[in-house]
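#struct-help
A.M.: can someone run this one for me? Single chain, 257 residues.
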Amino acid sequence: MGLRENAAAAAGRQLAEEDRTGTAEHESAPAPDPMATYEPGDGNPDMVPVHIAWLRVRREVRAISKGEQYNGGGTRFNFRGVDTVVNTFGPVTVRHGVNIFPVDVEAEYRDTTTSKGSKMRECTVRVSWLVMGPKGDTLPLLRSQGEALDSADKATAKAQSVALRVLLLTGGLTPTHDKDPDASYMQRGEAPTRPAVSYLDEICNPRTSAGRLRQIHYELRTTQQLGALVTNETGDEEAIGEMVVRIGKERTAGGVA
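D.P.: on it. Structure tokens below:
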């Protein structure tokens, strides 16, 4: 007996046959699908599959440059920070109805110290992400990793933020639009030949070892200058190759290695 029949019986009367039939039909009808007649408005995303929605996100984001700079501890480099990446992707994913949820987080910790001796907590996370489109369909689970250091209790949050940045940049194939190292090309010219006379001071220096003299002899032979005439240490003219050999033998005999 339905609600209407119970109410009628309590009032001392019975429902008409057509009322009973309508009640039975009403009770057995399936619940309506709330999305069956949904039509997106001006501010709502199009009801497209998740892979199409994500493609539209990528098409709008296009690129994020390395506009932030770290300069400390003797290290200097440009980077794309977590806030910059999230602030770029956030409004675009909302516009296209894309939701991103962390569904599993595996974390590892260890205690460490900085170069200055400060105690730090290091956290490494592996996060599984669920990317859901406006229709409720999802991409296969995506995974990313992140690591961070903190002196208090923020290492986990920092590491998860890094993992989110990695997911967005990797999944979005987001370029920097920085200048490619191969964009400029410069042909290397030949180094000028060192003249033989420029070796004289080094050859005559008593502190120049026999090993260095052998190297000088090799350099002169490579540049085909062994026969070049120079004024030696006594004021006489001598081929520089012979001069190097002679002084080298004197240094070896004198015990200079």
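A.M.: thanks! The mean pLDDT is 83.
D.P.: also worth noting: The chain has eight helices and seven strands.
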